[in-house]
């Protein structure tokens, strides 16, 4: 070719001072919350140590193997406890459990562990989505996405997606639901459909649902300015548009032709939105549609290319001071790439390195796909690129590499070499910044 949020109430006895029973209840509640936090910390510390212990092949002895197995069993016990806690009566405990599962699923491959527990976890997530509020629903949708990613595109992943797809659509289209939960459901619907949609009917129904969400940011007929929405709703529309464009990458050509006819006239109007993320997503989606059209060798699929390039050029050189500096910089960078591609058909290639391998992001289709998985997995995306067969199939990386301890050790640089490299980079950066400062001083 992504959000997590405690309320303490106190009762008072006579004279405005807390009664003994109130203090006892408050103390018990504080102790309960502290114990939840301690449990979360304990799970994460155990999980982190086990991940570090198994991330490379140990050059070792039988005792190392025994230690690894003991660590792995301890981690699995903690994860079983988290799965049980997803159904706890306390909302705080449920959220802590969901957050721990999110971190675990994004940083490690757990197919064998989850295979026999996927139905139990799916039922628990369904209850969180139905009865939970705001943050809990958001976390449940994210964990569902990661569960689907762990299960892959086979029957297990299809089963998870099919069972919760109607509920995701209900929450996403419910205007009275929390915007935060709707945002996560938009991402979950797009990702799960991309991974595990069994047929074209599933794909089209998800595309239609997502289109109905972000299209409310498109200008109404006869109006050239986008509709105004709150920042939370704009983020929802942005997520829906990103998921929609992700699903376009696996659509048949016949459906893409309909999309070109209906949306290449609407999407350029979203470039005038006052939300920087929505402008950027609209620009990237336009570039993606141009790429898909050119791949199908479509001629004259868009007539107002000159006007579009004028808009893109204005965004690529935007220097309005009322926009945040980081927003301006990111917008200019992305729209330069979009403009260059529309004009010349050339894509600015990016190299992603992970372990001993690298991957080339050399098209808008590949960039949209990589960005979608990176958004969900966070820092764990590199581990999954190395070990997740689904991602390796999507990005044509072949089967996971099997390396012995000697090869891994040889590929590592020592701490001293890393220190020398960082020192050289720091000196070079300081010199470059000094030259810029000198030029500024001359101008002043």
Specify the overall morphology: globular
N-to-C span: 44 Å
Pick out the low-confidence regions: 1-36, 48-61
Alpha-beta content class: mainly alpha
CATH superfamily of the domain at 75-219 and 230-244: Leucine-rich Repeat Variant
Q: The biggest beta sheet, please?
A: 2 strands, antiparallel
- The CATH class of the domain at 75-219 and 230-244 turns out to be Mainly Alpha
What is the correct CATH architecture of the domain at 75-219 and 230-244? Alpha Horseshoe
CATH topological fold name of the domain at 75-219 and 230-244 = Leucine-rich Repeat Variant
Rg over C-alpha atoms, rounded to the nearest angstrom: 25 Å
How do the strands line up in the largest sheet? Answer: 1-2
Helical residue percent band: 55-70%
Instruction: Tell me what portion of residues adopts beta-strand conformation.
Output: under 5%
Total number of strands: 2
| Secondary-structure element string | HHHHHHHHHHHHHHEEHHHHH
Mean pLDDT: 82
Number of helical stretches of at least 4 residues: 19
Organism: Alligator mississippiensis (American alligator)
Biased composition (Low complexity): 24-33
Biased composition (Acidic residues): 65-75
Domain Interferon-related developmental regulator C-terminal: 388-441
Please describe what this structure looks like.
Strands 1-2 form a two-stranded antiparallel sheet. The model is unreliable at 1-36 and 48-61 (pLDDT under 50). Among the domains are: 75-219 and 230-244, Leucine-rich Repeat Variant; 252-338. By secondary structure, the chain is mainly alpha-helical. A hairpin with a 2-residue loop joins β1 (350-354) and β2. The chain is built from 19 helices and two strands. α8 packs parallel to α10 (231-248). Residues 1-75 are annotated as: Disordered. Pfam families: IFRD (PF05004), IFRD_C (PF04836). InterPro entries: ARM-like, ARM-type_fold, IFRD, Interferon-rel_develop_reg_C, Interferon-rel_develop_reg_N. This is Interferon-related developmental regulator 2 isoform B.
């Amino acid at each position: 070719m992504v959000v997590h949020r405690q309320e303490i109430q106190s009762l008072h006895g006579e004279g405005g001072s807390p009664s003994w029973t109130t203090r006892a209840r408050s103390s018990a509640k504080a102790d309960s919350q502290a114990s939840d936090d301690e449990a979360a910390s304990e799970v994460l510390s155990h999980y982190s140590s086990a991940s570090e212990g198994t991330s490379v092949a140990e050059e070792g002895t039988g005792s190392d193997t025994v230690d690894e197995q003991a660590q792995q069993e301890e981690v699995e016990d903690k994860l079983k406890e988290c799965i049980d806690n997803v159904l706890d009566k306390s909302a705080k405990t449920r959220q802590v459990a969901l957050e721990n599962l999110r971190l675990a699923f994004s940083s490690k491959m757990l197919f064998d562990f989850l295979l026999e527990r996927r139905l139990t976890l799916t039922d628990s997530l369904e209850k969180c989505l139905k009865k939970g509020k705001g943050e809990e629903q958001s976390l449940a949708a994210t964990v569902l996405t990661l569960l689907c990613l762990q299960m892959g595109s086979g029957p297990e992943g299809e089963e998870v997606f099919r069972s919760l797809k109607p509920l995701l659509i209900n929450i996403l289209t419910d205007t009275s639901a929390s915007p935060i939960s709707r945002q996560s459901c938009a991402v979950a619907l797009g990702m799960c459909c991309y991974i595990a949609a069994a047929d074209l009917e599933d794909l089209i129904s998800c595309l239609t649902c997502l289109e109905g969400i972000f299209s409310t940011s498109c200008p109404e007929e006869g109006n050239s300015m986008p509709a105004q929405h709150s920042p939370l709703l704009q983020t929802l529309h942005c997520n829906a548009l990103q998921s929609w464009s992700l699903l376009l990458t696996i659509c048949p050509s016949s459906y893409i032709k309909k999309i070109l006819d209906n949306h290449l006239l609407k999407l350029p109007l979203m470039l005038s939105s006052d939300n920087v993320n929505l402008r950027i997503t609209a620009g990237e989606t336009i570039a993606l549609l141009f790429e898909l059209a050119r791949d199908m060798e479509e001629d004259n699929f868009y007539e107002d290319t000159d006007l579009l390039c004028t808009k893109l050029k204005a965004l690529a050189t935007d220097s309005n001071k009322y926009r945040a500096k980081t927003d301006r910089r990111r917008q200019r960078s992305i729209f330069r790439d979009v403009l260059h591609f529309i004009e010349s058909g050339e894509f600015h290639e990016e190299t992603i390195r992970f372990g001993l391998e690298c991957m080339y992001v050399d098209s808008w289709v590949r960039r949209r796909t990589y960005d979608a998985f990176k958004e969900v997995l966070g820092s764990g995306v590199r581990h999954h690129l190395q070990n997740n067969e689904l991602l390796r199939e999507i990005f044509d990386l072949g089967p996971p590499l099997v390396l012995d301890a000697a090869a891994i050790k040889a590929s590592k640089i020592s701490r001293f070499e890393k220190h020398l490299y960082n020192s050289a980079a720091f000196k070079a950066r300081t010199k470059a910044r000094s030259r810029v400062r000198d030029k500024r001083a001359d101008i002043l």
